[in-house]
Design a protein that fits this description.
Elements lengths: L5 H14 L3 E8 L5 E12 L5 E10 L1 H22 L6 E3 L5 E4 L1 H7 L3 H4 L8 H5 L7 H5 L1
Antiparallel strand pairs: 1-2, 2-3, 4-5
């Protein structure tokens, strides 16, 4: 185990062991070549019919590639967000049913709403639609 994680992992595992409850955690383990790789560990109690825990079953899965891919996606999303929010135009992404999936900063400023307030709204009910009569073509027809 990586020394920075030992106390936390041990505390969590022993607590779940004492409670007889399933345990899950992720942490770095040292590989044979000295490289630390991230693992997802899970353990579940195996019980008899009377509920008594008789043994535990556990797994450790190397999730290093998954974590790296997730970090790459988060970095890419942050970069895209920065570009979109700094464009001098309104940008929105609609789902096939016409709801806002994404909208950039300038559009939010014009509508005076937060991203959280806008996401999921039907575009036809938004302030942008109401201010643009030329855009009143149904989304399904615009896509076709």
């Amino acid at each position: 185990h990586h020394p920075d994680h030992v106390a936390r992992v041990l505390r969590g595992f022993l607590g779940q062991l004492a409670a007889g409850e399933p345990w899950e955690d992720s942490f770095p383990l040292r590989r044979h070549d000295g490289e630390f790789r991230w693992f997802l560990a899970r353990a579940v109690p195996l019980r008899e019919d009377d509920g008594q825990t008789t043994r535990w079953f556990g797994t450790c899965t190397d999730i290093t590639a998954t974590r790296e891919a997730e970090q790459s996606v988060r970095a890419s999303e942050a970069q895209l967000r920065a570009v979109l929010d700094n464009l001098p135009v309104m940008v929105g992404v609609l789902s096939l049913d016409g709801r806002l999936r994404e909208v950039n900063g300038p559009a939010l400023e014009i509508a005076r709403v937060t991203r959280e307030q806008a996401i999921g709204l039907p575009f036809a009910s938004t302030v942008w639609w109401q201010r643009s009569p030329a855009m009143h073509e149904p989304v399904g027809e615009a896509i076709a």
